[in-house]
From TrEMBL, chain A:
<protein>
    <submittedName>
        <fullName>Uncharacterized protein</fullName>
    </submittedName>
</protein>
<feature type="transmembrane region" description="Helical">
    <location>
        <begin position="113"/>
        <end position="131"/>
    </location>
</feature>
<feature type="transmembrane region" description="Helical">
    <location>
        <begin position="70"/>
        <end position="92"/>
    </location>
</feature>
<feature type="transmembrane region" description="Helical">
    <location>
        <begin position="143"/>
        <end position="163"/>
    </location>
</feature>
<keyword id="KW-0812">Transmembrane</keyword>
<keyword id="KW-0472">Membrane</keyword>
<feature type="transmembrane region" description="Helical">
    <location>
        <begin position="170"/>
        <end position="191"/>
    </location>
</feature>
<keyword id="KW-1133">Transmembrane helix</keyword>
<feature type="transmembrane region" description="Helical">
    <location>
        <begin position="12"/>
        <end position="30"/>
    </location>
</feature>
TrEMBL record, chain B:
<keyword id="KW-0472">Membrane</keyword>
<feature type="transmembrane region" description="Helical">
    <location>
        <begin position="51"/>
        <end position="78"/>
    </location>
</feature>
<feature type="transmembrane region" description="Helical">
    <location>
        <begin position="12"/>
        <end position="31"/>
    </location>
</feature>
<keyword id="KW-0812">Transmembrane</keyword>
<dbReference type="Pfam" id="PF01944">
    <property type="entry name" value="SpoIIM"/>
</dbReference>
<dbReference type="InterPro" id="IPR002798">
    <property type="entry name" value="SpoIIM-like"/>
</dbReference>
<feature type="transmembrane region" description="Helical">
    <location>
        <begin position="109"/>
        <end position="130"/>
    </location>
</feature>
<keyword id="KW-1133">Transmembrane helix</keyword>
<feature type="transmembrane region" description="Helical">
    <location>
        <begin position="150"/>
        <end position="171"/>
    </location>
</feature>
Length: 196, 175
C-alpha cells in the first residue's frame, strides 16, 4: 500500500493528464472570477450593449463566454508547452554537438521539464483569482507587467533547474533560453509602461 | 484496430480528423447564430480558371499557415465554417431545404474536402511535435518523410480544386 502510494505520488506531479486536469479546474475558477471582475470583460460588455450590429454582438457574446475563455487559455498553455519544448530540443542539438556528442536527449525530456513549470502558471492563476475575488477588480495596470515578469522568470528558473544544465551540459540552450526570457521580460515592462 | 492506431499516430490524419470535428462545431455555431448573411451573386459568375486560381491560392495560404503553427488556420477555419453555416441557414430559410441542397452539395462535394485538408495541413507540425513529445510517432517520421507527406496532400488538394472549379463553373452554375 505504501509502495503504491509512493508510486502515485512520484509520478502524479509529472503526469501530463494530471497537470491538464488541474489546469482545467484552476482555469474554470479563474475564468469565473475574470468574467465577473475583469476590466477588459467589463469594457467589452459595455461596448456591445450599445452595439446594434447583430454580427458584432454575436462575436462579443462568444468572446465573453466562459467556454471560449477556458478553451483558448487551455489550448494556448499547452501549445506553448510543446512549441517551447521543441525549440529547446532543437537548440540542444548544438549543445550535444559541441559538448556532449555521446548523449541523446529526447523531446520528451524537454516536455517533462516544462510540464513541472506549469505549476507556476497554476499558482499565477490562483493568485489572480484570489486577488480578484477579494478586491473585486483586476490587478492594476501599473503592477501587472511586474507581476507577469516575476511569474515568467520563476517559470524559466524551474525549467532550467529541471533541464539539469551542468549534468547534461546544456550551456547554449540555457543561455539562449535565458536571453529569450530576459527579452520577453523587457518587452512586457516596456509595453506595460506605454499602455498605462 | 491497427488502422485506428496508425491514424491517431499520424500527424496528418489526426489533424484532418480534428479539423473536421472543429469545422462541424463552427458550422453548427454559424447555422444556429441566426445572423442570416446572404451569398453574393458574383460567386456564381466566375470562370473555371478564376475559380481554380482563387481556391488554389487560398489552399496555398492555408498550407503556408503551418509556419504559424496553425494560428492562421484556426482563424480561417472559424471564418469559413461559421460563414458556411450562416449562409446555408439563410438559404434554407428563404429557398427551402431541397433547393439549398441542390445548390450546396455540388458546390461543396470537392471544395469542402479540399478546404478541410488544406486547413488541417497547417495543424500538422504542432501535432507532429505533440506526438513526438509523447513518443507516439513512428521513427520513420523524418523531416524528408514529413515533406513527402506535405507534397502528397498538396497534390490531392490541387486535384480536388480542379474538380471543384469544374463542378462550379460547368455544372453548379447551370443547376
Amino acid at each position: 500500500m505504501n509502495r503504491l502510494h509512493s508510486i502515485i505520488n512520484k509520478n502524479m506531479a509529472g503526469n501530463q493528464i494530471f497537470v491538464m486536469a488541474i489546469t482545467l479546474i484552476v482555469l474554470f475558477v479563474y475564468t469565473n472570477a475574470f468574467l465577473k471582475h475583469g476590466s477588459l470583460i467589463n469594457e467589452l460588455t459595455l461596448l456591445y450593449t450599445s452595439e446594434s450590429n447583430k454580427t458584432v454582438v454575436h462575436i462579443m457574446e462568444i468572446l465573453t463566454s466562459m467556454e471560449f475563455n477556458i478553451i483558448t487559455r487551455f489550448v494556448s498553455i499547452f501549445s506553448v508547452l510543446y512549441i517551447v519544448s521543441f525549440l529547446l530540443w532543437l537548440i540542444s542539438r548544438f549543445d550535444l554537438a559541441f559538448f556532449n556528442p555521446n548523449q541523446h536527449l529526447t523531446l520528451n525530456f524537454f516536455t517533462k521539464a516544462y510540464l513541472y513549470s506549469l505549476y507556476i502558471s497554476i499558482l499565477d492563476f490562483l493568485c489572480q483569482t484570489i486577488y480578484m475575488t477579494f478586491t473585486k477588480q483586476d490587478i492594476p495596470l501599473h503592477i501587472l507587467p511586474y507581476y507577469m515578469v516575476i511569474f515568467i522568470t520563476l517559470q524559466c528558473i524551474v525549467i532550467l533547474y529541471n533541464l539539469k544544465i551542468r549534468e547534461n551540459k546544456l550551456y547554449i540552450t540555457a543561455a539562449f533560453f535565458s536571453l529569450l526570457i530576459i527579452a520577453l521580460d523587457i518587452a512586457i515592462i516596456y509595453i506595460g509602461s506605454v499602455y498605462q | 484496430m491497427g488502422n485506428l492506431r496508425n491514424i491517431i499516430r499520424d500527424p496528418f490524419y489526426i489533424s484532418i480528423l480534428l479539423t473536421t470535428m472543429i469545422a462541424l462545431l463552427f458550422f453548427a455555431m454559424g447555422f444556429q447564430s441566426g445572423l442570416n448573411e446572404e451569398l453574393s451573386e458574383a460567386d456564381y459568375k466566375l470562370s473555371f480558371f478564376d475559380l481554380l486560381f482563387h481556391n488554389s491560392f487560398l489552399s496555398l495560404l492555408n498550407i503556408l499557415g503551418m509556419f504559424t503553427l496553425g494560428i492562421f488556420n484556426l482563424y480561417a477555419l472559424f471564418v469559413n465554417a461559421f460563414d458556411l453555416g450562416n449562409i446555408l441557414n439563410d438559404s434554407i430559410a428563404s429557398s427551402g431545404f431541397g433547393y439549398s441542397m441542390r445548390k450546396f452539395l455540388p458546390h461543396a462535394i470537392f471544395e469542402l474536402p479540399s478546404m478541410i485538408i488544406s486547413l488541417a495541413m497547417g495543424f500538422a507540425p504542432i501535432f507532429l511535435i505533440i506526438l513526438k513529445a509523447n513518443n507516439f510517432i513512428s521513427t520513420r517520421y523524418t523531416f524528408w518523410f514529413f515533406l513527402k507527406k506535405v507534397l502528397f496532400f498538396s497534390t490531392i488538394i490541387l486535384i480536388l480544386n480542379i474538380c471543384a472549379a469544374f463542378m462550379e463553373s460547368f455544372i453548379s452554375a447551370n443547376l
